[in-house]
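Renewal narrative, Specific Aim 1. Our central claim is that a sequence can be written position by position from structural information alone. The example that follows is taken directly from our test logs and has not been curated for this report. It begins with the structure tokens describing the chain, in the order in which they were read.
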């Protein structure tokens, strides 16, 4: 038994190295307990500003949402006790789905307990043998893992490369019964968007279906936050299936699927991730409904997010920082040329009171490590200026050498972080896209 346990430990240790943990080398900034960090900073008379969270519209601490969630617990209880199909649902479930459908502009929606699980279950369920799924090669890991559950043939196309996508369609479309194209509305690692009109044109010309993951674009893109279709002045009815999460602009958790009524009715009785999973907790459903109402009544939040995003992008470019292809809508990366520099920069920002964990190896190409900034409607220009100035200072070569040679983490490093020091140099050969 001991040898089996030892083998498992060795296997886990080796897999960690292959996943890229060897580049960390000292106390890492991940899994930071933000409540404790904020308390530590305040005890010294300072503030911790985070650019690492999805709170695009600044609603995570909104008292109205807290109150709605509390009232739902008092009325319905904490949980729902089973699958909605066989255990029954609460009135708040359908009310949420109606509200989501009205906001997004689809016939109906289905709400699920996990955004990640929504994509895996849906993509794996939609098509089967004799069908084809074409997926952008920078699509989120949940979409990619969903394709692996499908019996359909899977082909990746280069990110936003319409010419290559059309070449694939010309070559392969006639060999398959059904074809599904998978893209995102706003790519969460690069902050760029697809050319939706061109995707729709190809969809129509080659008789395919188009599914858009709008996890980061709903609440962000478009004049009223309705997502990428509003961003391009199109109608959501042009899209076959839209999916999204409730953990970003809606500041809670869970996922949803939107589309034509018959499609949603079919999924409500057959989708494994819905049928075989518990329903959303009443507090989550109520919180999301309240967030939807606030977003509809306070469009200034979307304007403020856009203003902050563009200000950040302009300042970053003026300072010579590389933001890649980001369109300055909510999420903006600062791309580095080495993982070492990225890790140093992240540590320096934490010392300065800004939480921006580095993205290295996992989630992005090995040659494009980055700090990923999520802007929100609550950020001030002073905070944006402050973090960018601190970043420029951290990139000074003399400071970098001094920081990297130190074996001691910053004073604000959480006490429960894992020390990962590897002597091997193995790195992952694949990219697992993360949110």
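The sequence written for that structure reads:
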């Amino acid at each position: 038994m001991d040898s089996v346990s030892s083998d498992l430990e060795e296997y886990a240790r080796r897999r960690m190295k292959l996943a890229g943990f060897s580049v960390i080398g000292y106390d890492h900034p991940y899994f930071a307990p933000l409540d404790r960090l904020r308390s530590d900073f305040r005890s010294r008379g300072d503030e911790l500003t985070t650019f690492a969270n999805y709170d695009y519209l600044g609603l995570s601490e909104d008292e109205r949402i807290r109150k709605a969630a509390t009232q739902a617990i008092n009325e319905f209880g904490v949980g729902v006790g089973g699958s909605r199909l066989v255990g029954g649902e609460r009135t708040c479930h359908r009310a949420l789905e109606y509200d989501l459908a009205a906001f997004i502009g689809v016939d109906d929606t289905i709400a699920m307990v996990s955004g990640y699980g929504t994509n895996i279950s849906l993509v794996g369920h939609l098509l089967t043998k004799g069908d084809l799924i074409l997926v952008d090669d920078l699509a989120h890991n949940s979409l990619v893992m969903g394709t692996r559950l499908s019996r359909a043939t899977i082909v990746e196309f280069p990110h936003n490369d319409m010419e290559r996508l059309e070449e694939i369609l010309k070559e392969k479309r006639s060999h398959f019964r059904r074809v599904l194209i998978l893209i995102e509305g706003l790519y969460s690692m690069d902050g760029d968007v697809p050319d939706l009109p061109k995707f729709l044109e190809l969809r129509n010309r080659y008789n395919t279906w188009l599914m858009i993951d709008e996890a980061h674009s709903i609440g962000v893109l478009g004049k009223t936050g309705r997502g990428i279709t509003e961003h391009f002045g199109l109608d959501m009815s042009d899209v076959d299936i839209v999916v999204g999460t409730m953990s970003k602009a809606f500041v809670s958790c869970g996922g949803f699927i939107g589309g034509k009524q018959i499609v949603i009715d079919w999924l409500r009785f057959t989708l494994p991730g819905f049928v075989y999973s518990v329903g959303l907790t009443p507090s989550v459903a109520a919180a999301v409904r309240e967030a939807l109402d606030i977003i509809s009544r306070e469009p200034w939040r979307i304007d403020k997010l856009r203003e902050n995003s563009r200000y950040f992008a302009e300042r970053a470019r003026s300072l010579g920082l590389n933001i890649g292809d980001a369109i300055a809508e909510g999420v903006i990366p600062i791309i580095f040329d080495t993982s070492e520099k990225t890790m140093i920069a992240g540590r320096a920002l934490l010392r300065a009171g800004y939480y921006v964990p580095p993205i290295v190896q996992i989630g992005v190409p090995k040659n494009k490590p980055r700090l990923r900034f999520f802007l929100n409607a609550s950020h001030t220009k002073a905070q944006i200026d402050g973090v960018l100035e601190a970043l420029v200072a951290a990139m000074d070569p003399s400071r970098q050498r001094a920081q990297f040679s130190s074996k001691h983490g910053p004073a604000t490093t959480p006490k429960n972080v894992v020390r990962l020091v590897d002597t091997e140099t193995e790195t992952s050969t694949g990219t697992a896209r993360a949110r």
